[in-house]
Amino acid sequence: MDIFKDPKFAPLQDMEAFTEELFNRVFSFQEKKTPAWDEDNPFSERIQKLPLHYLVFSNGDRDPAINGPTINHYYPLREEIRTLVHIAKQISKQPTILDAHPGNGFVGSLIAREGVTVVGARDPKIKPNQIKNFFDADFYQMREQAVADIEGEFDVIFSSWMPAGENYTPDIIKHKPKLIIYTYTDQLDEQNNRICGTDDAFNQLPENYRLAAQWDVTRPKDLFKLAWPDLTANMEEVRKTKIFADHACPDVDLSGLQAATPYDWEEELVMALLVSEAKTALEQQGIETSDE
């Protein structure tokens, strides 16, 4: 079976060159030789060619006792980010979004760049990311305040990866937002503790909030290792998004969203998933594949 005859797998013909470029990006980031590490660089340059590997893992020199993740806890997808903004604009033409516990502002900035106002509420008591500031100052405002202390009116509150063992929902609902967006996982760590929030943080909301939309994104086990055996193995992780709307808000419509160019790191994701799919197709034909 010549798998390259299937147009779906045609990109794999360039796998050698793609792999060489990927490893160059990974090593450059590891050695802190990429624009991402320099907060003085424009955000658009900092995210250019950002390795997917470092949106799953942190840099090797990070001290977890001092810092949170190097960049972010997960890899955001452009379609997801645009969907969140699409929904927010249905409840307000010019929505203001509060980015609760925003880390370095990375995901919040991606949201802001889609044409909405985003304010980050960064609690000084929370461990900073290894790259402390990774936000787009042209579109995103960071405040060094906890969610409970921040003032202002917000149409939407975005809770991305609520800190383990914490429940920010009571502080969130005090602001009476029209929408509450949670991105989190229900998975547990090696000590059987939650990675995000608490058991009831994402479900125990006042009666005036209804579940308006939800979806999951699964990060496959050994996402990189199947395609590039020299890279680090990973566990499967299911990332959940739940959007709660105040009952006064109209039903949200997920249709009508125009396609847009994916983020650079999504190219690596597509390639890794394509390798996995190709190996499965070959094995179904009785052809052995190797991870070497």
Give the helix/strand layout.
Blueprint: H1 15-30, H2 43-46, H3 78-91, E1 96-100, H4 106-112, E2 117-121, E3 140-143, E4 156-160, H5 169-173, E5 179-184, E6 209-219, E7 237-246, H6 264-284
Question: Which oligomeric state applies?
Answer: single chain
Number of domains: 1
The amount of helix comes to 10-25%
Element pattern in H and E: HHHEHEEEHEEEH
Give the radius of gyration.
20 Å
- What is the CATH topology assignment? Rossmann fold
What's this model, at a glance?
The protein is of the alpha/beta class. Helices cover 23% and strands 16% of the residues. The longest helix is centred in the last third of the chain and has 21 residues, at 264-284.
What does this structure look like?
This protein is an alpha/beta fold and 292 residues long. The protein is 23% helix and 16% strand. It has six helices and seven strands, in the order αααβαβββαβββα. It has helices at 15-30, 43-46, 78-91, 106-112, 169-173, 264-284; strands spanning 96-100, 117-121, 140-143, 156-160, 179-184, 209-219, 237-246. It has a seven-stranded mixed beta sheet, covered by helices on one side. The protein starts with 14 loop residues before the first helix and ends in an 8-residue tail after the last helix. The mean pLDDT is 95.
